[in-house]
Amino acid sequence: MESQEKFSREEKLDATKLHVAQYLIALILLGLGVGLWRLQVLGADSYRVLAEQNRIRKVPVLAPRGKIFDREGRIIVDNYPSVSCYLLREQQKNLQADLPRIAQGLHMQVDQIDALLKRYAYAPKYQPIPLKQDITPDEQAFIEAHRNELPELQTLEEERRLYPRDGFMAHVIGYVGEVSENDLNNSKFAFYSPGDVVGKGGIEEAYDEILRGQDGSRDVIVNSHGKEVGLMGQEVARPGRDLRLTIDLDLQKAAERALEGKNGAIVAMDPHTGEILAMASRPTFDPNQFSVRLTKAYWNQILTDPNHPLLNKAIQAQLAPGSTFKVIMTMAGLQENVAQDMKVTCNGGATFYGHFFACDRSHGYVDIHNALPYSCDTFYYTLANRLGIDTMARYATSVGIGEKTGVDLPNEAAGVMPSEAWKMKVLHDKWYAGETISVGIGQGAIQATPLQLARALSGIASGGVLRRPHLVFDEELAPDELSALHDTYPGSGEKRVPLTPENWQIITDDLANVTGPIGTAASAHLEGVDFAGKTGTAQVVSHSALSKVAKGTNTLPNAWFVGMTPRRNPDIVVAVLWEHGNWGNNAANLASEVITAFVNKQRQRAGNLVKLAEVKPAAGVAGSAASSNAATGAETTAEKAAAPQTQSETP
Amino acid sequence: MARRGFRDFDWTLLAFVLVLSVISVLEIRSATAMTKFHGFEVKQLLFLLVGIGLMFAMSMVDYHRLLDVANIAYGASLFSLVAVLIPHVGQKVLGARRWINLGGGAHFQPSEWVKLVLIVAMARFLWGRAGEGKELSWKDVGKACALVLVPMALVLKQPDLGTSLTYLPVLVAGLFLGGMRLKQAGIIVLGLVVVLGIGYGAGKRLKPYQQKRIDAFLNPDSDPKGSGYQIKQSLIAVGSGGVWGQGTNKGSQTQGDFLPIPYTDFIFAAFCEEHGFVGATFVLLLYFLILVRLVQNAQTASDPPGTLLIMGITGVMLFQIAINIGMCIGLMPVTGIPLPLMSYGGSSIIFTFLSLGIVMNVRMRRFVN
To answer: A364 — contact with chain B (CB < 8 Å)?
Structure first.
């Protein structure tokens, strides 16, 4: 290389420069040494004092959660002041020795405190551990009395959740609790730290970010004895935002009252907007028990309850919709121009593909105008056979069956709408034409939630306009919050399905006749109110399997009703699911209670003080299901869902 | 010539280095004992073993071969520094693009090894230009500056002020030993002062966090929770150590979570708190012995590039020690430069031991003519 040639091996760099470098090294290190001398020898005493004082204690300032109101501004969820006890760990003393005394004074177990300490082992030392929440006055007195011996205990005032009593609206509201360790590993909870209170279930979970606000803290400088000597800085707590729900407390009360003592769900919504006016589910639970200290006994009681009290049946119960599905069948039949001129003579059933499919009675001559009020199975078997499963599935899916509605609540169930493709995909089997017949009356593999049915029938009665059901007014949310919400809870949402005005008229008139003299819900008739709807009585066990069921299992059919007023472009649609309610018209009676409350309120608001007759006794009373079963006959013209031999074969 | 074996290997230097490394591992163990980083001392030990292995490997290759590939390596360095700035190639961690993802969880920080390449490239550049009685022309000074300042600017863009600053001593050592005239140095310094003055006046040169660190350095109380807080906690830690220190695992600043990152940038402060002035002086003495030993090896090198290589390494190490310890005792602003041989971290250890490998390499070939 060129440069290599220019260079002679004997040549060396200037040695004095390397000496300079050595002196520079010595000088710099000496300088550092002098700096150390100044700090560690001359300044040792004053820095020791600073180190003593240097105990920053982070005292959390908890943001109160936003309150929850109904659509008219009446309070549903409030906060109340309470005192919690925190454990400080930066004291230079042996915590372990004090644990038995602390445990005794606060009525806790030593193991319990040990487990807490282990859980927070790697949190910064200045961060206090929440030891016990909502302590009693005598525990507070214990802490005050032992301030000197047990300086590691500190009390803090905070706001706690106050929920309605007796589990009123519990499923809609949800509850709050400490974020669990499992949650913390989830990326969704990346910004939460142990001890944080988060919403779990219902509105509390869905709107946690809005409701929770932002906790603040005060960085207090304390000396080594734990005494405050100054304030280093503070982050102001930002309270959570209040939320106004679309729920109308009056209707909610009516729905809760109607369900009392039963298992099931009621959901009422405004079809014009998708606003949910009432949503109740039974059995229920007490969210107040969750927000402070959940006793093991209560938790076990809830976990072992076979009726799953934590389940919000309005959006999570996926059951065969029974005859309520016939409304969608009617729409499909009319839109496909099959049902208009279809005439069937019902002799208590019909035979398809070699199997006899039963109807609950012999309806005689049936056409499109009385099939729905009669709820004649024979008519819909025939219609299903003509349409075929895939056409039925297309219409059902278009009104949101088998798909989440997109309601702003966590863990909504999607339900199932069977089709040939569905069966091949899920069960890896071919679809048999016989299965289509059962699906025609809402039995078989089809599953829907009460909210899905409410939305589907809302859409049909509104001429094909479907809305996204929601519990919080869109105006309450910023545009980015709204779009984030829609991303979190996707569903079939807002859509328009084709429905000709003629067909719309036929269906809605049919619905109105259901509560008329010839209808299956004649007992729920409300004089002077355009109350329309459709009953459903969905079998939970087929007749042939009835004998094999274990004793004590409730085998009574589920009662459904989806009602509305007025029949066209209704202002309210109510879906009722009464598990083991036996007959669809029993559910219709519950729906009529909610409709009554709605109509009365409308009339009162309009200055019209003539109230509808108060709730009728009939079959709506708890425990009457069995007796009404015995007294079937003339009173109920309800359809008994077909239970052909094929039932036991269908999954 | 490598067959001369390791008789000429600088075992004394290695002994000093190993003593310091053991101190480092023990202090990391103490400083992380109460945190979720406990167990880092084991990882540090593994890094050290890898580093020592690399050092021996590096000492086997004749450093003239390194000088031969200097141009290619320099080109590759510039390429990797540009690559790291490209989104999707460079990994953004804490707001700075410093890492290239190699896949399989392995990351690579180009700016560390560029330091080594710069030292070699500088020695290569001055080979033939430098020597007793020779002086650098203005053109050569300009080229040397460009050699260092281009990669420096790229690293500054990441942004990583700390690492980019560690490239400066390579330039200073090179120009000083390469034979820059006093007049040239004077003009450059004057120019720098003017430029910095204008930059400071405009106030746009520094990122907000960098400006904050400078402000905090000038007045620690101005920002008690940020950089000022770190300096303050560090001063308290060092000062409260006193003459004898508070003992391993007993430093209240270190164990109480007051001292920030006590296992990397502030490890010296943690050490001072727990082992006092006596311990700190012992560490300074070890650094002095190591650095002086490096300069001796530079003197005995058989040719100028050997000397330049070692002095470049010495310059970088001295600079890092001065800045880091200076930061811990409040003489320098917070820059995020690790302390060689003490701070936890694979990149830093591997750079240090590769450099030491080059030093050994030069020493083992000192009698070759």
So the answer is: no
**8 A C-beta contact, residue B7 and residue B19:** no
Residue B177 has its nearest CB partner, among A2, A11, A13, at A13
The answer, for B33 touching chain A at a CB cutoff of 8 Å, is: no
Mean pLDDT of B23-32: 92
| Nearest residue to A246 via CA among A218, A267, A221, A226 | A267
Six-digit token pair at A517? 């003299």
Distance between CA atoms of residues A34 and A28, nearest Å: 10
Domains in chain B: how many in total?
1
Closest of A372, A322, A314, A241 to residue A643, by C-alpha: A322
DSSP state of A238: B
Claim to verify: residue A118 and residue A153 sit in the same structural domain: yes
Q: CB under 8 Å to A306, separation ≥6 — which residues?
A: none
Cβ contact B277–A26 (<8 Å): no
Taking CA–CA distances from B321, the nearest residue in chain A reads: A29
Tens-place pLDDT, residues A558-584: 999 999 989 999 999 999 999 988 888
Contact with chain A for residue B39, Cβ under 8 A: no
Whether A39 sits inside 8 A of B34 (CB atoms) is no
Q: How far is it, in rounded angstroms, from Cα A243 to Cα A232?
A: 35
Mean pLDDT confidence for B257-281:
89
Distance, first Cα to last Cα, chain A: 86
Which pair of tokens denotes residue A394?
Answer: 């297309």
Rounded distance between C-alpha atoms, residue A376 and residue A440, angstroms: 11
Number of domains in chain A: 3
Cβ–Cβ of B303/A43 closer than 8 Å? no
Whether B34 and A232 lie within 8 Å, measured CB to CB: no
User: Cβ B303–A51 below 8 Å, yes or no?
Assistant: no
User: Residue A121 belongs to a domain with what CATH number?
Assistant: 3.90.1310.10
Domain that holds residue A25: 2-52
Strand residues in A321-468 grouped as ranges (E): 344-346, 349-352, 355-358, 364-366, 465-466
Place of tokens 């079939």: A492
Q: What pTM does this model have?
A: 0.59
pLDDT in tens, A119-165: 777 766 667 788 887 888 888 888 888 877 787 788 888 888 889 98
Instruction: Judge whether B241 lies within some domain.
Output: yes
In a domain, A587, yes or no: yes
Rounded CA separation A400/B306 (Å): 79
Tell whether A287 and A236 lie within a shared domain.
no
Residue B257 lies in a domain: yes
Average pLDDT over chain B, rounded to an integer: 85
CA diameter of chain A: 124
Gap between the Cα atoms of B144 and A344, Å rounded: 100
Q: Find, among A28, A20, A32, A5, the residue nearest to B311 by Cα.
A: A20
CA distance A45 to A6: 62
| B112 found inside a domain | no
What average pLDDT does range A410-415 have in this prediction?
A: 91
Say yes or no: A147 and A28 in one domain.
no
Angle formed at CA A106 by CA A105 and CA A110, multiple of 5 degrees: 90
DSSP per-residue letters across A559-614: EEEEEEESSSS-SEEEEEEETT--SHHHHHHHHHHHHHHHHHHHHHHTT---PPPP
Q: Is residue A311 part of a domain?
A: no
Chain B residue closest in CA terms to A2: B128
Inter-chain residue contact A54 with B176, CB threshold 8 Å: no
The pLDDT tens digits for A363-397 are 889 999 989 999 999 999 999 999 999 999 999 99
**Confidence category of residue A547, pLDDT binned at 50, 70, 90:** low
Report d(CA A160, CA A176) in Å as an integer: 10
CA distances from A176 to A77, A188, A233, A297, B253 (A): 12, 16, 30, 19, 37
When the pLDDT of each residue in chain A is averaged and rounded to a whole number, the result is 83
